[in-house]
């Protein structure tokens, strides 16, 4: 295992069907002014909003709301939230929703007392906050991002078409607590569920496909991936299977709470490609990742052949007998493609709204990363987008998942 590192994760988790009860305990640690942050209103339809409001009132909290946080939170929405939190003199930001709501709340947290433009400071210069931050707590209703136990935040600038993520180094940006009830995730459409599943899988891949040492993190990653493959297949057949949904939720948290990143350089190029597509199409995050993953992995596979062979054998049970390393590696990626089609993931960026005329501009806003097996230049980035645009995909399961 290579490298030197420190590890700290201060987020307290409450997991299970009764986990919301612990919100009473957590609220006692903060002042009276709470800002409730949520998305398009689904939590009002499924009753979660009423449950949370009842607990807030029971604890004597003065509540303001930031509603309508979109799946790809915009810079304009960030500015709006900052003003609400500032005028309310927020003591706690309580995010109730999926990863976008949690991400957004962290961005508000570091921006309320920031003396500069937060977009320039945090998402262009990638600086750390030098001001007081507002504590964040999360009640998770959709899994995938892992935002409930990390210090990451992603904001989209609609004017520049840039979708940029910043993983803050300071653990005080992490949620102070997160409440994870797998039952809350069962109200989502299948499309959102499988999008989240692929987001989880790709988070693990981004950390796994880096380094050549015998790293403990890789063994943990392989176990997480195998668990996710099993649970995802059960959940796609029966979305109400509590055991499968609870395992998916738990895997999502551990996929991106920084643990399996220890000792790894990490790649993150698939996220850069996917986020660039998302900036132009406003497509669901997990689907943008799915659409660009295979063209990218097949392109870089020769540069990290040993790891791709290991991936095929240890995750996909590909037999290496009588085959070259490249044959084994390609079989692993083919098995991954079959699983992605089985879930009904989008496999082509044209289905997300991208077209040939956009590709040059999308390539221009794609950040090249150096942590994986090959740092791409602009021509290579453009090539991957073109391959994704031309890929064939299976529509049947996509149509089914609109319900």
Strand ordering within the main sheet: 1-8-5-4-2-3
By DSSP, the count of extended strands is 8
Give the N-terminus to C-terminus distance in angstroms.
46 Å
Assign an overall shape: globular
Strand content: 5-15%
What does the main sheet amount to?
Answer: 6 strands, parallel
Range of helix content: 40-55%
Poorly predicted ranges (pLDDT <50, ≥5 residues)?
393-403
Helix and strand content put the structural class at alpha/beta
What's the order of the H and E elements? EHEHHEHEHHEEEEHHHHHHHHHH
Oligomerization: single chain
Radius of gyration over all CA atoms, rounded:
21 Å
Mean pLDDT: 94
Task: Supply the number of helical segments.
Answer: 16
Write the layout of secondary structure elements.
Blueprint (H helix, E strand, L loop, with lengths): L11 E4 L7 H5 L5 E5 L4 H4 L2 H11 L3 E5 L8 H13 L4 E6 L1 H13 L6 H7 L11 E5 L11 E6 L4 E6 L9 E4 L9 H19 L7 H22 L4 H14 L13 H13 L3 H16 L4 H12 L8 H19 L15 H6 L13 H13 L5 H5 L3
Parallel strand pairs: 1-8, 2-3, 2-4, 4-5, 5-8
Antiparallel strand pairs: 6-7
Helix pairs in contact: 4-5, 7-8, 7-9, 7-11, 8-9, 8-12, 10-11, 11-13, 11-15, 12-13
